[in-house]
Amino acid sequence: MKPEQKSENQNNFGLMRLVFASLVIVSHAPEMLDGTSDREPLVRLFGTLSFGEFAVDCFFLISGYLVSSSYISDPSLRNFAVKRLLRIYPAFILAYLISILVIGPIAGSDLGGLDLEEWWMMVSRMLRLGYPVLPTVFPDQMTHFLNGAMWTISYEFRCYVIAAALGLIGAYRRPTIFVGYILAIVALNAAFITGQITDQMLDATRNHTFRNIFLDPVHMSRFLLVFACGTAFRLLDGKIPYRTDFAVFATIALAALMFVKPLAEPALCLFGGYLLFFCAFRTPLIAINDRYDFSYGTYLYGWPITALLIHYVPDIGLAQLTTSAFALALMAGALSWFGLENWAIRQKRRFTVKRTFRQTAASS
């Protein structure tokens, strides 16, 4: 008998996303306060991944699962693109503009001194989902970024593009295609980890056009692997037994391998992925951040709020900084959701095409 588990609409993903957004703040706070990761909790414990890296990887695991599931249930490229664009862009653009126009002057940047080309570059970066950049921001702090958390969004969006491409070539229906893809990504990551791909070889990727499309190849290969692992868990739905004893084993294996730097991230993909989906589907439902998803806004505003707290309260302690930043970022996330994100998501009905019974049957 297959183990009973919740459906995709009955899960703890909402709560988990909010937890991971909070872990990013927990990770960034000591690094922004000290300029080092010496007081970062997970780094102190394992000496490998930070809570920020851990949480972002978990975000990508969840996205890999849910985004591939979205394509499988509705393999319309137009509908897929509309859903992804409406989920990512509106809140990102608002956070980007607030970072530039509101936080920038507070952080010490002179917007009046920017020329037309610099303004165009900022608009271009925004449309490409790049993080906001201004000269001379927070000069009194250890980190000099307007929003150092937004850089991952452009990688996630590119994973969406790859997910659509995999769907178009039938990788979700033909296991051999997807297995070949994931083996290629594993080999690429292994080449980076073992030094088979050297800095000299990477020099060819440092031109402007390549980086605009593929970003940093090391980070891109990492995120593609994590995202693909999330997709693999979706494709193996009903075949993976989510059992408590297996979850205990996965916990022990993950904890042991987290001490080994080259193996920490692969272990997180495999054993951490199992634990993540076990908690999502087999633990009691906790209806937090379920109907109203504050996690994206919390993630987008966590960094600038932390920076502003350090700016206005220079002698703030780490515990006070972390708790205050999370509380304020959660409020910002709620405002982002109720003020923009929820409205934007509802607009997909205007732009998506309803599938007929014949289309649905033909794609299944």
From TrEMBL:
The keyword Acetylation does not apply. Keywords: Membrane, Transmembrane, Transmembrane helix. GO terms for molecular function: acyltransferase activity, transferring groups other than amino-acyl groups. One of its GO terms (biological process) is polysaccharide biosynthetic process. The chain crosses the membrane at residues 12-30, 42-67, 88-107, 150-172, 178-198, 219-236, 242-260, 267-288, 318-340. GO terms for cellular component: membrane. Residues 14-335 form the Acyltransferase domain. It comes from the Bacteria. This is Acyltransferase 3 domain-containing protein. It comes from Paramagnetospirillum marisnigri.
